[in-house]
Amino acid sequence: MNKTIYFIANWKMNGNHNSINEIERVLNFFKKNTIYKFKKIIFCPPSNLLTSFRIKIKSKLIDFGAQDISKINVNNGPYTGQLSAKMLKDSGANYVIIGHSEKRLIDEDFKTIKEKINISLKNKLKIIFCIGENLSQKNKGSSLNVLKKQILSSLDVNKINFNNLIIAYEPIWSIGTGIVPTNNYLDKIYRNLKKFFKEKYKVNSPIMLYGGSVTTDNVATLGKIGLISGFLIGGASLKSTSFIKIIKNYFK
Ligand code: PGA
Q: What's the whole-model pTM score?
């Protein structure tokens, strides 16, 4: 069976109204090159661009997500600076990134992450839930324990619908550094995560992605890890040329 491979563009704090051109180029390429069937492309631009991009890009070939939601569990109200799940849905997002390590570094703990996940599920936003250990945790050999803790403190055993949840494993030491874990390292992580999800959450095949310095050069190697269902891509997703090439190289 051919499984769907996710290519999620995390634009972080980058992009402007002209960046729609990059997405249009991606769209036009895949409209013309229909051999790439088993893929799902999701762009997560900054929220200020979501609506205008969604209005211009109506194709089923490309979906959109936000990079954060408010933890306040109401649709509207006197909450300066907040964007509710409902507002993000209205602006064209079907997905939302939650728990990214860069956001955690600024102001997000796992209690907040759990609240945001539950609000997103309630509002039918699909979640791209990020987990990952830092370098010192890796060096101490505690990566798996760290990941399990992050998962347990974020995902309510009884509430999570795994059809609406994508797990992105992003080792913090790999994000934006050009350093990518070996396939051996990753293989072990994903096999253990799969086992853990089965034991704790009774889910057989959670959707698990890899993120951290994915490029046109390393995607084919990373793609050899059977338990990976795709990639969360930062820097290399900003330009259509490299984003398209990542997808082409994966399927080569
Ligand atoms: P990177 O970012 O591809 O630039 O390393 C990935 C991410 O942070 O999601």
A: 0.97
Length of the chain: 252
Q: Say whether 143 sits in a helix, a strand or coil.
A: helix
- Only one residue has tokens 């959707």, namely 207
Q: Distance between CA atoms of 221 and 250, rounded to whole angstroms?
A: 8
Residue in the block written with tokens 């991606």: 26
CB 114 within 8 A of CB 146: no
Using an 8 Å Cβ cutoff, are 76 and 85 in contact?
no
Percent of the chain scored above 70 by pLDDT? 100
Query: pLDDT tens for residues 67-98?
Result: 999 999 999 999 999 999 999 999 999 999 99
Pairing between β-strand 39-44 and β-strand 62-66 as defined by DSSP bridges? parallel
17 is catalytic: no
**Which residue has the CA at smallest separation from atom 2 of ligand 1?**
234
Distance CA 223, CA 164 (A): 23
User: So what's the pLDDT on residue 138?
Assistant: 98
* pLDDT of 1: 63
Query: What are the backbone dihedrals phi and psi of residue 78, each rounded to the nearest 5 degrees, phi first?
Result: -80, 70
Three-class DSSP category at 192: helix
Cα-Cα-Cα-Cα dihedral sign, residues 64, 68, 72, 77: negative
Q: How far is the CA of 215 from the centre of ligand 1 (A)?
A: 10
- Per the annotation, the verdict on 115 as an active-site residue is no
Chain position carrying tokens 């874990």: 181
Q: Give the residues surrounding ligand 1 with Cβ less than 6 Å away.
A: 10, 170, 175-176, 211-214, 232-236
